[in-house]
Specification:
heterodimer, A: 424 residues, D-Maltodextrin-Binding Protein, domain 2, 2 domains, B: 308 residues, MetI-like fold
């Protein structure tokens, strides 16, 4: 800005002022151009809780090397970006059906040659198999996994000397006993449809049905699907969903009026023994009661403890769109994020589980009970993440826990699936 | 009016059309400068996207990437889809009930607020307030009232019916949406009615009271017949608006319990975000045609009103 002083030392008329402003602009642009030799890439990550975390990671990445400059994009709706052919260069998002339709249509580039793919934990293959990939491609690299099960109030269980149930009959007995003790067995928040679907419905279905198998045979049947096909929702889901309705009756009386926030508050205050929510609820509960003594166990749905399984989802997965012009730079950022010390630190801070064969076990006392199930591959992905969201599955499950008919709902679901299969 | 009326066929204007021509062309240029910018914006922002949407309704597109033409199969699937039919019957039923309730209450309020009462202006201001609050805010406030305040009140007073939330009652949840939507829509309908009522000459009431008409008789035989045009317009505008119900429902029930309160607009919107783009574009096209029919009906009604 040395020129500025000479310009200002003269009596300032309008022309010199404009000239100096223009000169300043040119100077600013040239100073930018030294930066412009760096490739700028857009990194999309919109999970609200960890935006500040990734922002600081990006800062470290930009400082660590001279060639790539990554900007942080936090918009949640990706459909529009893909529709405009202007997707981010690297995505780090929840891996669900929404994401899967991008890969199915070939909008994501092949990542099968990445060295990081060799490090995937053995169960990853099973998780990725839930969604069809574009032929010949591996479109995503898993980054972090969430394990969800029944959160339970250890103090209540210990005070009344109640064991953690490992069979369905034990679970029902436990609920009855809690009721006779005057304790609400399960705190439910059915006003928010998603809590009924990702909690109670996913746990009861995942604990009883082989979800991958179910959807693989549905895909095999394809557009020939009718409600009378060899695999159907009515055939596979009726029993577990009837059990779900039985369990839903052990909820707090006002469950239909309560939402997710009410549930976190009530469970933190010890108003119920069990709460069917994922680890994302733990920080919220800790806000109300940092000393809440909470444990986690998989919901038993059969009479065989060997069938116990944990609901997991790939909370974050990395992908690089076909449309990206800077795939190499994006891979550089990907490699940075996948360094073990960075990836493991993320999992620890976000209450996630590692997805690499060398990931350390979780350190969180509230989630430790789930680690053996994850290590041995006793896990499944929720049904609610496998059904295209154009079918209002969440609403159907909300209807069921508030007294709807299982038979009718599953007939509707079968009919919905048949129509969807015919037009896609 | 002379500028637009000569287009009517079979009138004397035809004979004298020639001297008018140059004058008309002159005015057209002025009109065009007003019209063209708006027309361009409308075409870019509304017409072209709408036409693209109609085009995509004949494909299997998910909103991006490759697609192929599938003819009418989206439309055929649409008419046999109970979810779509359910959304249409819910929305139309809801709109009918709401429009009747809204207009009945708005009319009564308007009659009350044009009468010679104390604090008339202050009352009008208070009654107009719901109009200036955004729908989603109103919905969340009422959501809290329905979920917490009313059940607490029911518990306190021992009234069984209030103890459980209206929003979680599968058979009555729609009623909560009617109440909240009507609460929000009454002010604008009321303002139109007030304007209409103030336009009725006072001597009509004077004459009718000389003839011995009671207050109710005046309402029935003087006010109502003169207000019928306003009522018609209010009903149609209201019905058209309520068909597009979205924000209030999202804030109150989000389509629940189950799928009892899913509106047409909600199903269309899920299409884009949830990968069923082409199918819901077909739905949107049908919805557009329905809205168009109502709009044409409304236009005919207003034109007839003007002709009088």
């Amino acid at each position: 800005m040395s020129f500025g002083s000479t310009a200002l030392s003269r009596p300032l008329n309008r022309r010199t002022f404009i000239a100096s402003v223009m000169a300043a602009g040119t100077l600013a642009m040239t100073s930018c151009s030294s930066d412009a030799t760096r490739t700028t890439i857009r990194f999309n990550q919109s999970k609200p809780e960890v935006i500040p975390y990734f922002r600081s990671l990006l800062g470290k990445f930009n400082a660590s090397q001279p060639s790539v400059n990554a900007t942080h994009e936090v918009t949640a709706g990706l459909s529009a970006a893909f529709a405009r052919n202007d997707p981010p260069d690297l995505g780090c998002l929840n891996y669900n059906f929404e994401m899967a339709r991008f890969q199915e249509r070939g909008a994501l580039s092949d990542l099968s040659d990445l060295p990081q793919q060799q490090m995937n934990a053995p169960f990853i293959k099973q998780l990725l198999a839930l969604y069809p990939d574009y032929p010949g491609r591996t479109s995503v690299l898993p980054y972090s996994m969430m394990g969800a099960a029944v959160l339970y109030n250890k103090d209540i269980f210990e005070k009344h000397n109640l064991p953690v149930p490992t069979r369905y009959s034990e679970l029902v007995d436990l609920c009855s006993e809690l009721q006779s003790l005057g304790i609400t067995p399960i705190y439910s928040t059915f006003k928010d449809a998603w809590t009924a679907s990702q909690g109670l419905a996913d746990y009861t279905l995942g604990g009883a049905v082989d979800i991958n198998q179910h959807f693989a045979s549905l895909r095999e049947i394809g557009s020939d699907f009718t409600p009378d096909s060899s695999t159907s929702f009515s055939k596979a889901f009726t029993d577990p969903l009837l059990k779900m309705q039985q369990l839903a009756k052990f909820s707090n009386k006002d469950a239909a009026n309560r939402g997710y926030g009410d549930g976190n508050l009530a469970f933190a205050n010890g108003e119920a023994a069990m709460y069917l929510q994922g680890p994302w609820a733990l920080p919220e509960i800790a806000k109300t009661n940092p000393d809440a003594n909470i444990g986690t166990f998989p919901l038993p749905m059969t009479e065989d403890p060997k069938d116990l399984k944990v609901r997991v989802n790939l909370d974050l997965a990395l992908w690089i769109p076909e449309e990206s012009d800077n795939k190499d730079a994006a891979r550089e950022l990907l490699a940075f994020l996948c360094q073990p010390e960075i990836q493991n630190a993320y999992n620890e801070s976000a209450l996630g589980f590692g997805v690499r064969s060398d990931s350390p076990p979780t350190n969180d006392a509230r989630l430790k009970q789930l680690q053996p199930y994850i290590d041995s591959g006793h896990l499944y992905q929720g049904v609610s993440t496998a059904i295209p969201r154009t079918i209002p599955f969440e609403n159907y499950m909300q209807g069921l826990v508030t007294g709807g008919s299982v038979e009718q709902t599953l007939a509707t679901l079968d009919a919905d699936w048949a129509r969807l299969a015919q037009r896609s | 009016m002379t500028l637009t009326s000569p287009t009517k066929p079979g009138t004397k204007h035809r004979i004298v059309a020639t001297p008018h021509l140059s004058q008309r062309r002159h005015f057209d240029a002025t009109y065009l400068t007003f019209l063209v910018p708006a027309l361009i914006c409308f075409t870019i922002a509304i017409t072209i996207p709408a036409a693209m949407g109609v085009f995509f309704s004949f494909t299997d597109s998910v909103g991006f990437g490759e697609y192929k033409m599938v003819g009418l199969s989206n439309y055929i699937a649409l008419f046999t889809d109970p979810a779509i039919i359910g959304a249409y019957s819910f929305t139309i039923g809801f709109a009918l009930v709401t429009v009747v309730l809204t207009n009945a209450l708005a009319f009564l309020l308007a009659v009350g607020l044009t009468a010679q009462i104390r604090a008339r202006v202050a009352l009008r201001t208070i009654f107009v307030m719901p109009m200036v609050i955004s729908g989603i805010v109103i919905a969340y406030v009422f959501n809290f009232l329905f979920s917490n305040t009313l059940p607490a009140l029911g518990e306190f007073l021992g009234i069984e019916i209030l103890k459980s939330s209206l929003l979680s009652n599968p058979n009555l949840a729609w009623l909560s949406i009617v109440i909240v939507t009507a609460w929000q829509a009454i002010p604008s309908a009321m303002l139109i009615y007030i304007a209409g009522l103030m336009a009725i000459p006072y001597d009509l009431y004077e004459a009718s009271s000389l003839d011995g008409a009671s207050a109710f008789g005046q309402l029935k035989h003087v006010t109502l017949p003169l207000m019928i045009g306003y009522i018609g317009i209010n009903m149609i505008i209201g019905f058209k608006n309520f068909l597009g119900a979205y924000d209030v429902i999202v804030g109150l029930t989000n389509g629940g319990p189950g799928v009892k309160t899913r509106s047409i607009a909600m199903t269309i919107f899920t299409g884009f975000e949830r990968g069923d783009y082409a199918y819901q574009m077909a739905n949107a096209t049908i919805f557009f045609i329905i809205s168009l029919i109502i709009a044409l009906f409304q236009l005919r009604l207003t034109n007839r009103g003007q002709a009088k």
